[in-house]
């Protein structure tokens, strides 16, 4: 029975995913930086105000806060919050000296960098770490219950956070360290800032750990990009498919 269950989980998921190609005609936009996206606001409009500080009570409901703090074995968030163009970003700033930014990968949080952050502070730098929307304590602020992550959204988030920290704490960004998707965000941000009339200059140093670049994107990852809502259902219903899709990224 156990082997039959395993075989069923491994084969039904890919079979359903392949058959859904013929049922779905709507395709999501490829994850590529766009020249117009940087001005998009929380709900698709321009942001008229610069990023502002926010209280945790503005960001999370009591139930949400209890759930997250219980998962992290904490009594409260250890960082601060800002309201930016797409929602609320939870961040932590420690140390003195030139600013080093730590950008994590999908499915993790800024806690992934706890060890390396301490070492960088001891070396004489300031360290800024933060959670992506939907990760850790950060929260997407739009009206959609299900929203699509894209590279421009994460680049906007980083841009707003740096704008706020550099303005409020008078810090100059020296380097960005990116792991996995964080590496992709680092490069996309510098690409945006290298353009004429960019809002800011490029960050002089990038450190990339296993950045999420593909010579050729795996088939299952391409399927997940094309039919995200269907694949989300598959991942929820079939544990083996969840592992396969996660590994593809």
UniProtKB/TrEMBL annotation:
<dbReference type="InterPro" id="IPR050228">
    <property type="entry name" value="Carboxylesterase_BioH"/>
</dbReference>
<dbReference type="InterPro" id="IPR029058">
    <property type="entry name" value="AB_hydrolase_fold"/>
</dbReference>
<dbReference type="InterPro" id="IPR022742">
    <property type="entry name" value="Hydrolase_4"/>
</dbReference>
<feature type="domain" description="Serine aminopeptidase S33">
    <location>
        <begin position="99"/>
        <end position="231"/>
    </location>
</feature>
<dbReference type="Pfam" id="PF12146">
    <property type="entry name" value="Hydrolase_4"/>
</dbReference>
<protein>
    <recommendedName>
        <fullName>Serine aminopeptidase S33 domain-containing protein</fullName>
    </recommendedName>
</protein>
